């Protein structure tokens, strides 16, 4: 008679050993995966805390000025100046992509975004005045050396800031902003008529500058693929433009835009004389300005970097990765150049 008990014992023991080995291996894998997950979460939390964006206000010239700030305080500073009718919010794509290596500061001008909107009867909405407030803003924050990023209205504000304090601007990044009369295209006829006779052309100007159609065109431009543009961006801006007092504020400021045209030769002369480090970024679907403008900058500063990106007037909407890479490479090259120059100076 076969002893099944004695026959099964070795087999059962072997099977149990294999099962135990598999269990141990599975347990080790599980523990390792759990540790990696916890480590990743901890690192993610550390990054989000260390480089998260802060939304702050500061009192400047009796006004509450709102600004976004992120990144290491001891890193190279990028001062980001927004356009019409946006705010510092337009730079969120850069905050997401660059705040781990640069100190980013983006204010809202008076009359824009979350800064104060003083009554036009009590506050002069001119580019001179806004540039003055922004210079006082940088001084209050202790920003004495920065790369200045200028988009649209950021151009006339930024160039005024630079000429007032050239020692503060280490380099210039121009994104869809104009410094040449030739850069104002065909759709500026109504706007030039407004400058010549404000009373007669005020109504036409507001329709041309502040309408939903124009607000949408600033984002989508002549891009054939409109579906990739988030309509919330222009709808939010259109809502902003229709808030009480905004039509008067924007009309006043745009009437002063004529002073920018008068100042263009001064800005061009400064660029030709100083030959600053300059990065020009231009949306290929830009419809607010003439496509000849990037080349005009290149004539003023032959060593300028000029890049046409896959976007419109607000090119960060669709080309954020490309623009962030260009900005990163540009600012990194500035720091490398400074390090090299210090090394050469030390050798002498």
Kindly describe this structure:
This protein has about 350 residues and is α/β, with parallel strands linked by helices. It has a domain at about 50-185 and about 265-345: Alpha/Beta hydrolase fold, catalytic domain (Rossmann fold, 3-Layer(aba) Sandwich), CATH 3.40.50.1820. About 55% of the residues lie in helices and about 15% in strands. The protein is built from 12 helices and 8 strands. The protein has helices at about 5-50, 90-100, 125-140, 155-165, 190-195, 200-210, 210-220, 230-240, 245-255, 260-275, 295-300, 315-345; strands at about 55-60, 65-70, 75-80, 105, 145-150, 170-175, 280-285, 305-310. Helix 2 (about 90-100) links the parallel strand 3 (about 75-80) and strand 4.
Short note summarizing the structure:
The chain has helices spanning 4-50, 92-98, 127-140, 154-164, 189-196, 198-210, 212-220, 231-241, 246-255, 258-274, 293-300, 316-347; strands at 54-60, 63-70, 77-81, 103-107, 146-151, 169-175, 278-283, 305-309. The chain has 348 residues and is of the alpha/beta class.
Q: Main traits of this protein?
A:
348 residues; alpha/beta; Rossmann fold; eight-stranded mixed beta sheet; 12 helices; disordered N terminus; disordered C terminus
